[in-house]
Amino acid sequence: MTQPIRSIPAMHEVQKTDVYKKLSNDIPTLILNNWIKASIENTRKDILNNRENYEDVSRIDHIRKITEYLIKQSNHFSPFRLQKVINGTGTVLHTNLGRARLSETAMKRVVETSANYSTLEYDVEKGERGSRHDIIQDLLLKVTNSEAAMVVNNNSAAVYFILKALCQDKEVIVSRGELVEIGGSFRVSTIMEESRAKLVEVGTTNKTHEFDYKNAITDETKMLMKVHTSNFKTVGFTKEVSSKGLKKITQQTNKEIIIYEDLGSGSLYPFQHNGIGDEPVVKEALKHADVVSFSGDKLLGGPQAGIIVGKKDIINKLKKHPLARVLRVDKMTLAALEATLQQYLFGQELQIPTIRDVLQSKDDVLSKAMTFLENLNQNSNVGGEIASDFSYVGGGTMPTEKLQTYGVILKSEHYSANQLEKKLRGGETPVITRMKDGHVFIDFRTITTEEIDVLLESVKKVCSNRDKLQ
């Protein structure tokens, strides 16, 4: 047993190789050394279990095998865990892939703001401390017709914040049909319990009437909460009460009861005017609700944020609450959100990727798919064909809305669909696809014209070496 073990090289011997020296230019030596240790340890264990396989293996053989392992590891190495990917799924607001892409205008503002000092909490005119709330409040007032506004780090935080600050130890009435659960097991009932607001459920799963709310109101009632069910649809024998109906109920009681509508995805753009879904617009919700919250990185098309708009006295109370500091957003989020809202204000919504991709015509999608396929067929051992299908908005919005789309089905005599999908996903720039009829399908709704060349390079590189896919 001694002889084979002695043939294992020391780490410093591997570090002297040309392979190690070359890789160390791009990969931290700490990581390279850990790979060497892992390879040496695996070799040692294998020798102990399979000594007969190593009788004639020399130290040079071991070094070559270890350097081959280093090269293999380096092919999958990235200095960053957060990587750019190409979204070939067709899902515009893909939660796992970061939801909304920022517009070029928003990206430039983030870069400029993060690279310099800024007026984050400084009033240039007065020469004294200012408030970060003021940075985007005026913009939000203009685009939503609200009296006041503020921003926290996401909409889940906004829901908790509103309930905690306004309704602790008080009753909040919610329809049973609106006690939703979204991604990550976030439930309205659970967050209400955490906020110490007292949940009062009314109605049934499919039907809630005005009299259900009226009968439930007591002297302890502080809020009637309406939750927009943006991630599912209840169809058939249904009934719900609008925020307008809730407002009428509170006016009849002569009690100071807040009407709060959580829009979830929230939209400033009227997609229904283009025949896409029936998502409520924030302006409309504010006509009857006292306070409204919604996400920044869904249909708005901006950065992750929880946007709160509504009556001035309510928003001012939130701003003064201790949680306002706990949940506040940073300068980069504010920069991106400010730039995005400016685009709404100036009628430049189609420059926002989310709006553009949802409204994109099937002919425009087809044109990109055809450009890709023409170039793929010129120099690749994997073929493809155009196929029609449907894309989804995603991100828990418009769950039943299908967008007609086109994509490319990749086919090969040598590679299985699972092999192609895995290798595309594991490339230098990961390409995330979906399956259609047992084949890899790339949906071009979510691929820009600028990304086509990168996508071509990724596919050709993956398919250029058959052995790598075995």
TrEMBL record:
Pathway: Aminoacyl-tRNA biosynthesis; selenocysteinyl-tRNA(Sec) biosynthesis; selenocysteinyl-tRNA(Sec) from L-seryl-tRNA(Sec) (bacterial route): step 1/1. It is found in: Cytoplasm. GO terms for biological process: conversion of seryl-tRNAsec to selenocys-tRNAsec; selenocysteine incorporation. It is an enzyme of class 2 (transferase). Keywords: Cytoplasm, Protein biosynthesis, Pyridoxal phosphate, Selenium, Transferase. It catalyses: L-seryl-tRNA(Sec) + selenophosphate + H(+) = L-selenocysteinyl-tRNA(Sec) + phosphate. GO terms for molecular function: L-seryl-tRNA(Sec) selenium transferase activity. SUPFAM superfamilies: PLP-dependent transferases (SSF53383). The keyword Cell division does not apply. Its main location: cytoplasm. Pfam families: SelA (PF03841). One of its GO terms (cellular component) is cytoplasm. The modification N6-(pyridoxal phosphate)lysine is found at residue 298. Its cofactor is pyridoxal 5'-phosphate. Its EC number is 2.9.1.1. Belongs to the SelA family. Converts seryl-tRNA(Sec) to selenocysteinyl-tRNA(Sec) required for selenoprotein biosynthesis. This is L-seryl-tRNA(Sec) selenium transferase. The lineage of its organism: Bacteria, Bacillati, Bacillota, Bacilli, Bacillales.
